[in-house]
Amino acid sequence: MRRRGLLGYVCVLAVVISGCSIATQNAATPLPPQLRLPPTSSTTTTTLPISKGTHELQVYFLKNGQLHPVQQPYSTDPIVTALTALAIGPSPDERGNGITSAFSESPAQITSAGTRDGGKTALVQIDQAFLDLQGEAFEEAAAQVVYTVTGLAGGPKSVEFLLGSVPKPVLVPPGFLVSGPVGQENYCSASSSGRWSFCPAP
Q1: For position 82, what pLDDT does the model report?
Q2: Are 158 and 25 in contact, with CB atoms under 8 Å apart?
Q3: 113 with 77: CB under 8 angstroms?
Q4: Rounded CA gap, 151 and 129, in Å?
Q5: What are 68's strand-pairing partners?
Q6: H-helix or E-strand spanning residue 17
Q7: Is the Cβ–Cβ distance between 146 and 129 less than 8 Å?
Q8: Cα–Cα distance between 130 and 26 in angstroms, integer?
Q9: What gap in Å lies between CA 159 and CA 121, rounded to an integer?
Q10: What pTM, to 2 d.p., does this model score?
């Protein structure tokens, strides 16, 4: 009698437990709309910082037949910055103000190849198009490079032009080919070759 009652109690307890258990499911049920979070985007946008030069140098172009300096900001290597700006040429606004360049191609192929003589001479790589410039255009282009590079504060005092690894002569007034390093005095020294039309205005 006692065994039967115990068995019946166990059965009733099993029914109660199964009735109170939490049902399981194999499929996920979506949350109600009011509980859903807004979707997040997986796309990220990277904005590059705007680089502003902390110093200024002068790049020499041409205006009214004379060398004309234009201010160029820089932060790192001034020779590389100067030659890059010179190779690109005057901006549209500068061209609108009558500023030009003697280089026949834009961008011109002029790059820094370092320095020698303890930094006193800058080595500048040129291309055949530079050497193919004729007459005064050849003089002006070389003068643009020389004045731009040797005008850097504490920079080189002369420039040697290279085609590959071979030094090349450049044209200086009044129509002489000069090999080796050349400086501002080769173009605008009143004591040697005289003042020529493209020298900077005093």
Answers
A1: 94
A2: no
A3: no
A4: 24
A5: 61
A6: helix 2-20
A7: no
A8: 77
A9: 5
A10: 0.71
Instruction: Find out whether 148 and 59 touch, Cβ atoms under 8 Å.
Output: yes
Residue with tokens 């902390």: 54
Exposure string of 53-84, with b = 16+ CB inside 10 Å and e = fewer, is eeeebbbbbbbeeebbbbebebeeebbebbbb
- pLDDT tens for 27-45 read 555 555 554 555 544 444 4
* Coil, strand or helix at 157: coil
Interatomic CA distance for residues 125 and 149, integer angstroms:
13
Give the max Cα distance, the chain.
Answer: 137
Tokens 């859903």 label which residue?
36
Structural contact between residues 56 and 75, judged by C-beta atoms closer than 8 angstroms? no
Q: Is 101 left (phi over 0), alpha (psi -120 to 50) or beta?
A: beta
Three-state DSSP class for residue 5: helix
Residue with tokens 């590079």: 149
pLDDT surpassing 60 at residue 9: no
Q: How many residues does the chain have?
A: 202
Return the domain boundaries, the chain: 55-188
- For residue 145, what pLDDT is reported? 97
Give Rg (Cα) of the chain: 38
